[in-house]
Amino acid sequence: MASAAGEDTVRASHILIKHEGSRRKASWKDPEGRVISATTRADAAARLGELRDQILSGRGSFADLAAQHSDCSSARRGGDLGTRRHSPHLCAPLLVSQELDLDVSLLGILGLP
Question: Residue 8: phi, psi to the nearest 5?
Fold first, then answer.
């Protein structure tokens, strides 16, 4: 997790399921936002929980499930957001804690206001 210059780096991946409360109600999968607008926050959390269970049970890989289900354009990269220098000043505090705690960053369900 250290770069050549000795700085800490993190690699982050995610699966994003948008819902009716999302700021932008469109995605590569749903350009008109019809499905997203009809998805409640609870429905999105339940879908993420189901995906988490599939990953934990070995029925699906994180990358494959992200490619199939994520509303983020990172889906085409298996949810990979890339590697970057870690700095608490450059990331939202919740994202930083997600990135640095393996159990949570890989399998947690994060809901931002």
Answer: -75, 135
Q: What is the pLDDT of residue 77?
A: 94
62-69 vs 41-57: helix crossing angle, rounded to 10: 150
Three-class DSSP category at 64: helix
State whether the Cα torsion 53-55-56-59 is positive or negative: positive
pTM for this predicted structure: 0.70
Q: Coil, strand, or helix at residue 50?
A: helix
> Is 32:25 a contact under the CB 8 Å cutoff?
no
45-81 burial code (b ≥16 CB/10 A, e <16): eebbeebbebbeeeebebeebbbebbbbebbeebbbe
